Amino acid sequence: MFALPAAPASVGVARRRVRESLTEWGVDPEACDNAILVTSELVTNALTHTASEWIVCKVHIVEERLHIEVEDQRRGWSLPAQRRPGPDDPGGRGLMLVGALSSDWGVKDTVDGSGHIVWAVLPSKGGDIVSTGSPATMTIARPIPHSAEGPSSDGTTAHS
Quick one: DSSP state of residue 69? Predict the structure, then answer.
């Protein structure tokens, strides 16, 4: 677990810290690369869409599955949601990558309600994505996208 200031340079710091931890733990190189990409996307979203002053990143392994969590200070207008951007859209692919590389992902409130935690679960060994069930204590939300992300694929209007 490590805290970072909500600054663009923190994305690179998070990537390095996660790589160091996973390498130290002997995680498969392919799984490590996937986890670093997912971490990068989750940290970038927290920085881009929440106006937080800091973020907290947690990575741990449970039953051969990597759990990645990025906590923000709940200062955004809406929760993260996967979109389907058009071929010419400059952004909006981050959570598509997270969804493609993860067996599961979602959003939950922090225990004290002061922020959100966006989490993802990935296999700790390379190869196929293994489907997992989420613990009963997690509240999974796939809400309306942030207004900067445009309309969702189902036509729902974003909050502004």
Answer: E
Q: Which residues does the chain have with pLDDT short of 70?
A: 75-94, 126-160
Over residues 73-108, the pLDDT tens digits come to 876 555 555 556 566 655 556 677 788 888 998 888
β strands within 2-150, DSSP E: 2-5, 54-62, 65-71, 104-109, 116-123
- Record the pTM: 0.70
Residue of 29, 31, 58, 50 whose CA lies nearest to 115: 50
Residue among 51, 62, 77 nearest 119 (CA): 62
For 18-30, give one letter per residue: b (16+ CB within 10 A) or e.
bbebbeeeebbee
Q: What's phi and psi for 86, nearest 5 deg?
A: -75, 170
